[in-house]
């Protein structure tokens, strides 16, 4: 079961606070430089990466001269705002030295549960990747409050993995991986080398954070692996200071804990569309569009749409039907129903003239669509 990263084309790498800040001593230039070198090498090998990096609060506390983590939420938020400057600067410097452009992206939970913002985040991140830019993501600590807080970046890493349909989530931490019990308190604990991500015994092994620096501990990592598996992505939890950890994982070496997703990517996505989203409308397409979707694996363009029914917003799930009302596919609409009606039957070049802007050339992008009864 090792080798979960072999052949991966897109990965999300999450690095924890204690690693990034050398246990609170300050942003660790060497560690970040080392990951950036590996990420650049992976990029040259055709692997797109996104980094989810913690460490803003720990770095901010250091810069503000605070020795104890404050309990007050606004003080934590202030520390994050201060520390994020150093964090972003460090990634930018090292990625640039490797010839890679980087981008800072700060997200909240609400950004990813709101359909329209979900699509916006997805489009922006995929555009960055398409331009060869490496996004460095953190929670937007300044604007979150108790209800909408991720609470930990492991969850954020999993949500980003789902958002981008990544092949794998790599969680780099200060332990070799998931142990049968917290190794800080149980000297007999053994490393779990491989397991199914949805194995129900895993959460019982995992405890909270072992240091005052980290937040979520191992439980949030195991839950993140479960969540990543919902979009068919594998998770590896490994020690972030292991030499060449990312490159060796990509070569197939067994390092840390390999937590395998048990359902294939397309099946997971289909399940998600089928289970979690209600249909807000439908579009009737012509035969050319049906063939493009079903036989050529293409996106749905407005030119193939004959009729638009229902009242839907950008990001809602709509059905794609033929003239007899038979559903061929369903997916997330890039446009609201009023815009879709204007665009129906028109070529992509007309869209800007009609709407005054172009969000996307497709009404439903291939990546956000599942075909009824067909695996890709
Ligand atoms: N079963 C377990 N296996 C490994 N580590 C565990 C386990 N249970 C709890 N932990 C604790 O989780 C810590 C890692 O989580 P955390 O401190 O939040 O790290 P990070 O900053 O990388 O997210 C470990 O240092 C360890 O003390
Ligand atoms: N946004 C926070 C993330 C805190 C967090 O989740 O920490 P960790 O458990 O070390 O991944 C920060 O940058 O400090």
From TrEMBL:
Q: Which residues bind ATP?
A: 14, 173-174
Please provide, in alphabetical order, the Gene Ontology terms of the cellular component aspect for this entry: cytosol
Q: Name one GO molecular function term.
A: glutamate 5-kinase activity
The record's annotation in Gene3D superfamilies points to: Acetylglutamate kinase-like (3.40.1160.10), PUA domain (2.30.130.10)
At the top level, the lineage of the source is Bacteria
Q: Give yes or no: UniProt keyword NAD.
A: no
Where along the chain is substrate bound? Answer: 54, 141, 153
Major site of localization recorded for this protein: cytoplasm
Which catalysed reactions does the entry list for this protein? L-glutamate + ATP = L-glutamyl 5-phosphate + ADP
Biological processes per GO annotation:
L-proline biosynthetic process
- Keywords carried by this UniProt record: Amino-acid biosynthesis, ATP-binding, Cytoplasm, Kinase, Nucleotide-binding, Proline biosynthesis, Transferase
- Pathway connected to this protein: Amino-acid biosynthesis; L-proline biosynthesis; L-glutamate 5-semialdehyde from L-glutamate: step 1/2
Documented EC number(s): 2.7.2.11
Family as reported in the entry's similarity comment? Belongs to the glutamate 5-kinase family.
Q: What does this protein do?
A: Catalyzes the transfer of a phosphate group to glutamate to form L-glutamate 5-phosphate.
According to UniProt, the name of this protein is Glutamate 5-kinase
Q: Which organism is it from?
A: Inhella crocodyli
């Amino acid at each position: 079961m090792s080798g979960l990263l072999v052949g991966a084309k897109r990965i999300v790498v999450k690095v924890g606070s204690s690693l990034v800040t050398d246990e609170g001593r300050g942003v660790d230039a060497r560690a970040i430089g080392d990951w950036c070198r590996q990420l650049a090498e992976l990029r040259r090998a055709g692997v797109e990466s996104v980094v989810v990096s913690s460490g803003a609060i720990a770095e901010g506390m250091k810069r503000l001269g605070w020795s104890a983590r404050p309990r007050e939420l606004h003080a934590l938020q202030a520390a994050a705002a201060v520390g994020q400057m150093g964090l972003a600067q460090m990634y930018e410097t090292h990625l640039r030295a490797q010839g890679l452009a980087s981008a800072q992206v700060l997200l909240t939970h609400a950004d990813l549960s709101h359909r329209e913002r979900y699509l916006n985040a997805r489009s922006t991140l995929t555009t960055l990747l398409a331009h060869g830019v490496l996004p460095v993501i953190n929670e937007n600590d300044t604007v979150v409050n108790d209800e909408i807080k991720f609470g930990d970046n492991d969850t954020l890493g999993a949500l980003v993995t789902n958002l981008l349909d990544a092949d794998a989530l790599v969680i780099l931490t200060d332990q070799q991986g998931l142990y049968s019990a917290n190794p800080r308190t149980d000297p007999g604990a053994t490393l779990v080398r491989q397991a199914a991500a949805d194995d129900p015994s895993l959460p019982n092994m995992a405890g909270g954070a072992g240091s005052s620096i980290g937040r979520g501990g191992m439980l949030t990592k195991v839950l993140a692996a479960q969540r990543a598996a919902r979009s068919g992505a594998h998770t590896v939890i490994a020690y972030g200071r292991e030499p060449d950890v990312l490159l060796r994982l990509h070569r197939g070496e067994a390092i840390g804990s390999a937590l395998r997703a048990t359902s294939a990517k397309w099946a997971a996505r289909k399940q998600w569309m089928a289970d979690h989203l209600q249909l807000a409308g439908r579009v009737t397409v012509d035969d050319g569009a049906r063939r493009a979707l079903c036989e050529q694996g293409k996106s749905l363009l407005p030119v193939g749409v004959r009729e638009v029914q229902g009242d839907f917003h950008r990001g809602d799930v709509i059905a794609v039907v033929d003239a007899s009302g038979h559903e061929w596919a369903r997916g997330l609409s890039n446009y609201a129903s009023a815009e879709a009606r204007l665009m129906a039957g028109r070529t992509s070049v007309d869209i800007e003239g009609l709407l005054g802007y172009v969000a996307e050339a497709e009404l439903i992008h291939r990546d956000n669509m599942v075909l009824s009864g067909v695996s890709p």
